[in-house]
Amino acid sequence: MSKFSISPSEIIRIENEQSRVLSDFVCVEEPLEIRLVYLENTCETEKSIAITMRTPGHDKDLALGFLFNEGIVSSITDMISIQATENHASPIPPNPIQSSGSSENQACEISQTTPLANNLLPPKNPHQNEIGSIVRCKLAEGIIPKLHQLERHFYTTSSCGICGKSSIEAVRIECRIPLKQTKWTVKRNTLFGLPHTLAKAQENFSYTGGLHASALFDLQGKLLLVREDVGRHNALDKLIGASITLGKTSHLDLEIDNGRAFESENDIPKFIIPPPTHEVQNTFTLPLSQHILLLSGRISFELVQKAAMAGIRLICAVGAPSSLAIDLAEELGITLIGFLRDERCNIYAHPNRIEH
Asked: Both 35 and 159 in a single domain?
C-alpha cells in the first residue's frame, strides 16, 4: 500500500469579504509503535517501548534514530533487522503493554509515487482502515536492551519527545560518543545561506506549511541530508537514523534516501533510493563532528541532547533556544545558534567556531 506524508484536503479560503472552496494539502499525522525483539534467557521477547505521533515516511530511520538517541543501541551492528508493518486494529494507538504482535499485520511499502493526472487529487482517504504503523527492531544475539534507561509511559506526542518520561533522571541520557576538540571554523556567510538552501529542499513543507525539518550540511554549507516530520524530535531522529544507515551500510533492509524528485509539477513527491557509495558512507560515519545541523524551529534541551549523541558540534536554528538547551550546549562544547534568518543570528554558546 502507499503511505504519504501529505494528504489532500478540501478547504474554504476566506479573503477579505469573499470565500471560495479550494483543494489543498495538509501534513499527515499518525501513530507509530516501536517494538524491540531480542533474546532473553534463550527465549525471544518482543516488547513495545514507545508510540509516537509522526508523519509517515522513513519510519525505519525514525526507529533506528530513536533507539540510538535513547541509548538502547550504540551502533547499527546491534541490529539484525528492522521491519515496518501496518496496524489494522484500531484508529486508537494500541496499548503497548498488552501488544505482543498481530497476525493481522501485513508488510507495507514505505514510499510510492502516485501521479495526479489531469490535476485531479488522489483519494482523500485511500486506506481508511489502515491506521498507524509498527516498526519491529530485532536486536543482535547478546544485545540485551537496558529498558530502564527509557522509563517512558510509552506514548509521546508529535510536539514533545520527552513528555512520556516517567522521571527527571530519565530525561538526561549519557552521550556515548567522545566529543573531541575541533579546530575548524565556519564563515558567517556560509551560515546565512543555510535557511534558504533548506527552504528549497523542504518540498513537503512547501505543500503544507506544517512540517518541521532537520538537515545536515558540510562545513562549506553543502546540503547533505534532510528529513521532515510533524514533530521536531521525530525529524531529528529520522535524520540521525538515516546517517547511521548511510555511514554503516549493512545487510539491513533500511531506507536510504538521498533526495527527492517529481514526475510533474502536480505530483506528490516520490523518494529516490540510490545505492550508497563509499564516499557517502565516509560522509555520514559517526561522530558527525564535521557537520552543521540546521533545525527549522526552536531549539529544545532534547534536540541538543540528540545532536550530542551523534557527535554534532554546531547546531543552528531559525527559532529560539531554551535556557536549558543553552546550558547543555555550553556544558558539552557545542556551538549553539538561534534566530538564523535574514542574514543575522544570535550565538548562545561557544562562538569560537564562527568566523567574524
From this structure: yes
Which candidate, 228, 219, 221, places its Cα nearest to that of 201?
228
Amino acid sitting at position 15: E
Catalytic residues: 160
Torsion-angle region of 56 (φ positive above 0: left; ψ -120 to 50: alpha; else: beta): beta
For residue 222, tell me if it sits in a domain: yes
pTM of the model: 0.75
* Domain end (from 120, 142, 171): 171
**Backbone dihedral angles phi then psi of residue 201, each to the nearest 5 degrees:** -90, -15
Q: Provide CB contacts within 8 A for 128, sequence distance 6+.
A: none
Q: Which three cell numbers stand for residue 236?
A: 531529528
C-alpha cell at 185: 571554523
Does residue 181 form part of some domain? Answer: no
Residue 309 identity: M
232-247 helix and 59-69 helix, angle to the nearest 10 degrees: 90
With respect to residue 180, please indicate whether it lies within any of the assigned structural domains.
Answer: no
Q: What is the pLDDT of residues 307-331, one digit of tens each?
A: 999 999 999 999 999 999 999 999 9
